[in-house]
TrEMBL record:
The lineage of its organism: Bacteria, Pseudomonadati, Bacteroidota, Sphingobacteriia, Sphingobacteriales. It comes from Pedobacter psychrotolerans. It holds the Pfam family Polyketide_cyc2. This is Polyketide cyclase/dehydrase/lipid transport protein. InterPro entries: Polyketide_cyclase/dehydratase, START-like_dom_sf.
Length: 132
């Protein structure tokens, strides 16, 4: 398994960060320009990653103010799990971590790990920008 992660501190309480992340409609605002054909509900999202794949994901697990896990609802190019964890820092700020766990063979790892790292870094930075 390949684990790709990015962590950011957000100047908002954990409940506010969790509430934002728990609605898949908000995730479109976290995506880079190479994501298009976005459709979402509170629990599910479908989108196309330019030159890569179409993905349909849904939130499969919620632990309030702690973590959210999303998994593919349709056949994906590889097994993948997307997880956000949020931790209350005790001072009104929250540490948010975005973790993608993917079952990549060596060829896919060489092709996909760079773009996936860019994706998680972009999403955590956007989260910080949006929520301040």
């Amino acid at each position: 398994m390949t684990i790709i992660e990015s962590t950011v501190d957000v100047n908002k309480p954990v409940a506010e960060v969790y509430a934002f992340l728990s609605n898949m409609n908000n995730h479109q605002r976290l995506m880079p320009e190479n994501i298009y054909n976005w459709e979402s509900t509170e629990d599910e999202a479908r989108f196309t990653i330019q030159n890569m794949a179409k993905l349909a994901i849904k939130i499969s697990n919620r632990v309030e103010n702690q973590e959210l896990t999303a998994i593919p609802t349709e056949k994906a190019p590889f097994e993948v799990e997307l997880k956000w964890t949020v931790t209350d820092n005790g001072d009104g700020t929250t540490t948010a971590k975005h973790i993608i766990t993917a079952d990549l063979n060596m060829m896919m790892k060489m092709l996909a790990s760079g773009p996936l790292q860019k994706l998680v870094d972009h999403q955590t930075e956007r989260l910080k920008d949006i929520l301040g």
